[in-house]
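Model the whole thing, not chain by chain.
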Amino acid sequence: MAAISMTVNGKPVSADVEDRTLLVYFLREHLRLTGTHIGCDTSQCGACVVHVNGRAVKSCTMFAAQADGANVTTIEGLARDGKLHPVQEAFRDNHGLQCGFCTPGMIMTAVDIIRRGRANSRAQIREELEGNICRCTGYHNIVSAIEDAAKRMGGAA
Amino acid sequence: MIPYSFNYHRPKTLAEAAALIAKMPDAKFLAGGQTIIPAMKQRLAQPSALVDIGALKELAFIRVAGDAVVIGAGTRHHDVATSADVARAIPALSELAAMIGDPAVRSMGTLGGSIANNDPAADYPAAVLALNATVRTMKRSIAADDFFTGMFSTALEDGEIVTEVSFPIPQLAAYAKFRNPASRYAMPGVFVAKAADSVRVAATGAASCVFRIREMESALARNFAPEAIADIAVSPEALNSDIHASAEYRAHLLNVMARRAVQAANAR
Ligand SMILES: Cc1cc2nc3c(=O)[nH]c(=O)nc-3n(C[C@H](O)[C@H](O)[C@H](O)COP(=O)(O)OP(=O)(O)OC[C@H]3O[C@@H](n4cnc5c(N)ncnc54)[C@H](O)[C@@H]3O)c2cc1C
Ligand code: FES
Ligand code: FES
């Protein structure tokens, strides 16, 4: 067992978990933050993307123990004071989702893309979405949402 | 996708990591986890313990030292891809790092993990071999030609930690990768590097292990131009054949990628 502590969406949390606990299970099952999804078992779909110390990572491909001491942000941590994050707003306004399964990972990835200044063209956004799979939308409106969000945010997340 | 049980250790120093692994014969290092964790989730790997070297500051650095770029084994693909120093000294290397997997994989994955794993389709091994790099561990230096020994195998001994890789700065270099449309791994990729005294051409994603294409090297040493290798066919005999591509197709792509790499190197 590993005794771990980290900050999740601004709140300190600690727990004893099995060493083999993946970060995604820690978030979903211990903290009940079920916005972070699991869409594959091959580290390819990106439904599980969260930010760890400011970097977008696949939480299914990291052990909770590796995040000991880290600052973690999940989809639940984006909205502020009941107001959606501009990227969330843009996904809604541009119809950037259908079933919504991939959406948490898409949005966490999108925030990271914009923060890294990599939303300069539709082609670049598509390139950056390499690790996120959507089975519904055909990506068109996801790309539009990210383009729109980047404009609203003036490039800085 | 739940791995078998194991014990997790996070040493604070390199010396502590080496001491820990020496005591645990079935333990493995965990660096970025982007290869070993997927394998453990599929239960294809069952280490008794993981020694996490991913957070060791000693292993995460990029240094331009005279005529070489020295990169710590724990340096993430993202940091190599976005380093201004690497882009200035060996742009082909930053371009290669930017082509590995996807942004989330690049946030975590490391140079040391990639070469220690030596996946037949991994990108970094092609750069290490073509640039004639030197792999340093805590106890020795290993020349690129001696490092990659076969499919998923290297000259590393059990418990030996790669600490850094020293890449000599070439005159010209480029990497051309034909991405598998699904996995985006190289299928194949060719790294071409021209140094003052020689040209080296390394191919990945084509056979069981990265290898040099010597006939192209000597032709390019005489004339560093795509035409010089247009007629040099790689024999499909030792190449992989699978659902993604036949050996003959891979052989064809090797020539195309090699010419593209030479062209890109000359266009800098
Ligand atoms: C979806 C996806 C797509 C990918 N696409 C590509 C791609 O296109 N091209 C590509 O090249 N790779 C690709 N990868 C693999 C990725 O580059 C990995 O980061 C890399 O292969 C392993 O590095 P790591 O740091 O994650 O190693 P880990 O998974 O932590 O470790 C891998 C192995 O190396 C050993 N090891 C790690 N560090 C050291 C060290 N310093 N000394 C000795 N042994 C060590 C470990 O014990 C382990 O056995 C992909 C991975 C994923 C999940
Ligand atoms: S669940 Fe993490 S990549 Fe699919
Ligand atoms: S909206 Fe259904 S998977 Fe993307």
